[in-house]
Design goal:
Structural class: alpha+beta
Number of helices: 22
Oligomer: single chain
Radius of gyration: 28 Å
């Protein structure tokens, strides 16, 4: 069946569900008198998403932490959405034989015939290898990609309708949210990508003692099946079970937050959905993250920008903070920059007025996100994933340790960033890079520019200076070259200082 045919068939089903819950008019008319927001309306929205299935449930979950965009009553209903589904009837041994081209009896001592968990994209089975190693087999549902592709086409139509209907919704960047959601869904649909994610995550933490990364079995995996080590641990927010196991919840909470910050600020590769069900605590207190279908990724330039943002934010330097936000954003429409400065100062006052243990991190992020929306500042996907991850980790931490504070936990990384940027090695690297860029810039100047400047300074082009705008051009050229010369001198002095420091140290 073609994508178009699947979309038409699925659209009919979606319309039927919307009509059943009283939303049919929204699809048939461009102007509709929508009832006043109420808990009953929000509950109906949640039930529609549940009945429409996995794609819509996931889309609702994506908004379940966006108090800055949606009414709190609706957010509360969206938090009730669970990514679960009735088990699909499949013969796991036949699937393994067909998909992997192997005889299950050769590789496995035992395979549980019924799934231990069943979600929207895949089912999970317990199994044991011939050597007794316990593993899980994650198997994708039949036709899940085709169904989700049709759902995403419908979602695009719905979001496009809503954006055209409301300027407020347009400023919320719903289309960009949907694009990010679509990207995340297709990442989760690829078990080959999840396998690669686990392997990279393991490489990043190979020397870290507080974390355990499950092993994977690439020879028993492909895009339909993922075979990995079974992790038997305690759900991280189960305070009672942790204490029974002799583990300190306060230590576990801080360890979880530190490991997430390490993923973000050092690796630039972080778990995109670190909710309590995806973090297990082992008997020795080590943590194990599971479910690597969606990951946040930052390029080196993204990490540098994030570091700049943190430094300026902690220093309460609004002007540099705004300049950094502009560089980080995909687009922005700032109508009143002075108002933006005042709004950011409001966040700083909010931080100053709260004791660290009483600070509501979610409220801070919501207020900041509201400021971004008001100025139509669209940030890259990884920043939204990062904020969501920090909110989730802080929520887990507060369950285990009510006095935990993210700001306090970030300070050691802030000092590390500053220390690195002031290190001789970093200064030398930056100095060499600046000289390289300056050299490239100078070499690209027109060959006759020095001669032109000489004539301007010597007065040989006096008659030409009567042309409108030429004095300003002369001033601009001279100022520019003076700055180039000054930059070269400063870079040379900086390199000389670094070389002297290194020589003294040796």
């Amino acid at each position: 069946m073609s994508k178009h045919s699947r979309k038409l068939k699925r659209t009919a089903a979606v319309l039927a569900v919307l009509t059943r819950y009283g939303f049919g008019e929204l699809m048939s008319r461009t102007r509709v008198q929508v009832e006043q927001p109420s808990n009953a309306l929000y509950e109906r929205i949640r039930k529609v998403l549940e009945e429409l299935g996995p794609t819509f449930v996931k889309f609702g979950q994506a908004f379940s932490t966006r108090e800055d965009l949606l009414p709190l009553g609706l957010v509360a209903e969206l938090k009730k959405l669970q990514d679960s589904a009735s088990p699909e009837d499949m013969d796991i041994r036949v699937v393994l034989a067909d998909e992997l081209g192997v005889d299950p009896d050769v590789h496995f001592e035992q395979i549980a015939p019924e799934p231990m968990a069943s979600a929207s994209i895949a089912q999970v089975y317990r199994a044991w290898l011939k050597d007794g190693t316990p593993v899980i087999l994650k198997v994708k549902r039949t036709g899940v990609r085709e169904k989700m592709e049709a759902d995403l086409l419908i979602l695009k139509d719905l979001v496009s309708f809503m954006v055209n209907y409301s300027d407020t919704l347009r400023k919320m960047n719903l289309m960009q949210v949907l694009e990010a959601f679509e990207k995340s869904v297709f990442q989760e649909l690829s078990l080959t990508l999840e396998l690669a994610n686990i392997m990279q995550f393991a490489r990043n933490f190979k020397d870290q003692p507080d974390i355990y990364v499950a092993g994977v079995f690439a020879e028993l995996s492909n895009d339909q099946v993922l075979c990995m080590e079974y992790i038997d641990g305690i759900k991280i927010n189960n305070r009672e079970a942790l204490m029974i196991a002799g583990l300190d919840p306060v230590v576990i909470a801080q360890r979880g937050l530190d490991l997430f910050l390490l993923q973000v600020l050092e690796h630039g590769f972080f778990h995109a959905d670190p909710h309590a069900g995806n973090i297990l605590v082992l008997p020795n207190g080590n943590l194990s993250f599971i479910d690597f279908g969606a990951m946040g990724r930052m390029m080196p330039a993204d990490k540098t920008m994030l570091e700049n943002f943190i430094l300026h934010f902690m220093a309460k330097d609004t002007r540099r903070l705004i300049a950094t936000i502009k560089k980080m954003s995909l687009r922005f429409t700032i109508g009143d920059e002075q108002k933006l400065e005042r709004d950011l100062h409001g966040i700083f006052e909010m931080l100053d007025s709260s004791a660290l243990k009483d600070l509501d991190v979610k409220a801070v992020f919501s207020r900041f996100s509201g400021i971004l929306n008001e100025n139509e500042i669209l940030m890259p996907d990884h920043l939204y994933l990062l904020v969501r991850g920090i909110v989730l980790m802080e929520g887990i931490g507060r369950e285990l340790n009510p006095e935990m504070n993210v700001i306090q936990s970030v300070r050691p990384y802030l000092l590390k960033i500053v220390s690195h940027r002031l290190s001789p090695e970093h200064l030398m690297t930056k100095g060499i890079e600046q000289l390289r860029l300056l050299g490239e810039g100078i070499s690209s100047l027109p060959e006759d520019l020095p001669a032109l400047i000489h004539k301007l300074n010597s007065g040989e082009l006096t008659t030409i200076q009567k042309i409108s705008g030429l004095p300003e051009l002369k001033k601009t050229l001279i100022t520019g070259l003076n700055r180039v010369a000054l930059a070269i001198v400063l870079a040379a002095l900086m390199l000389a200082a670094v070389l002297y420091f290194l020589a003294q140290r040796n």
